[in-house]
Amino acid sequence: MLQARGIVMRYGPRTAVDNVDLELRPGEILGLLGPNGAGKTTLLRRLAGLLPGSAGTVDLDGGDPAVDADARARIGYLPEDPPLYGDDIALQYVTYLAGLSGVPRGKRKAAATDALARVGADKLADRVIGRLSKGQRQRVALAGAIAHRPEVLLLDEPSEGLDPRQVVALRSLLADLKKKASIVFSTHLLAEAQTVCDRVVVIDQGRIVLDRPAGAAATANRLRVEVAGAPAADVRAALLALPAVSAMEMPGVGGAPEGLLCTVTGPAGAEAIAAEVVGRGWKLRLLAPARDDLEAAFLAAVTGTAVTGTAK
User: Please, which pLDDT band fits residue 273 given cuts at 50, 70 and 90?
Assistant: First the structure.
């Protein structure tokens, strides 16, 4: 749907985005994660066509939004700090944005009214924007981004300022929008990305350091083992010696023994691990199917603190 190749964004001597390749697939919600200053906002602005790049191309069905007005009109963009006009009425503001995005004059008000309803802000249509709460203003801004029913939607921290009920409503809205649009969704909240997104990309210091599915499905042959009362090296050696354990990871910072992830060869693996730990007089604090932990993967990608054990 949208492809970026070799994107470089420089500000004087500083490189904000460094040779990024990114592909957004049809009907996909892609989570863009990363620490503050990683380059997320700059990359989104380049994808939206708001900034020219120092190098690289963005392709939306043959057009680069930075130079092709038709391609740019097919994109909806919600910036992290939306440029709302405090003296405007909400409906007037969204109608104005619909016009800027190419909606014909006679259809703009209807498009704006529909967009406000879709984001749960229809009761705010006649309110002055400057008198709205932060969460209400955020919903009005989101309505402006979707009023022209874009094929690609770029959202920079869209849940910022929303209360828990509004966050749940946003998730429902995104699930509805993805039926006809592809979405890039920037957030600092890993749990939110894991819930909302189909795939996540982690960017750090301007480079993509992780690209993977967002789901957290339990894996039958991987067990999380938490052990207390023994050095990490001793626990690792004892469990790796078991025939039922084929590999082990120690993703905790510093390789803490309670952070073991064991790959087992069959259903008897859990029983063998439990018997070994208890037989040595150690405390077995947890033995459960491991989950594909996005938080651990994120920290490993941006800090390099993951410690991986040796497979047999």
Answer: very high
Alpha-carbon span 205 to 237, nearest angstrom = 36
pTM across the whole model: 0.74
- By DSSP bridging, strand 29-33 and strand 199-204 are parallel
Residues whose CB falls within 8 Å of the CB of residue 72, separated by 6 or more in sequence, listed in order: 48, 49, 65, 66
Q: Is 266 helix (H, G, I), strand (E, B) or coil?
A: coil
Residues 6+ away with beta carbon under 8 Å from 68: 49, 60
Q: Which burial class, exposed, middle or buried, applies to 20 when counting CB atoms under 10 A from its CB (0-12, 13-18, 19+)? A: buried
Per-residue pLDDT band for 260 (boundaries 50, 70, 90) equals confident
The H or E element spanning position 17 is strand 14-24
* Pick from 11, 17, 74: nearest CA to 44: 17
Start-to-end C-alpha separation, the chain: 42
Q: Domains for the chain: give ranges and CATH numbers.
A: 2-213 (3.40.50.300), 218-303 (3.30.70.100)
Those residues whose C-beta lies under 8 Å from the C-beta of residue 167, and which sit 6 or more positions away, are 159, 192
**SS3 for 283?**
strand
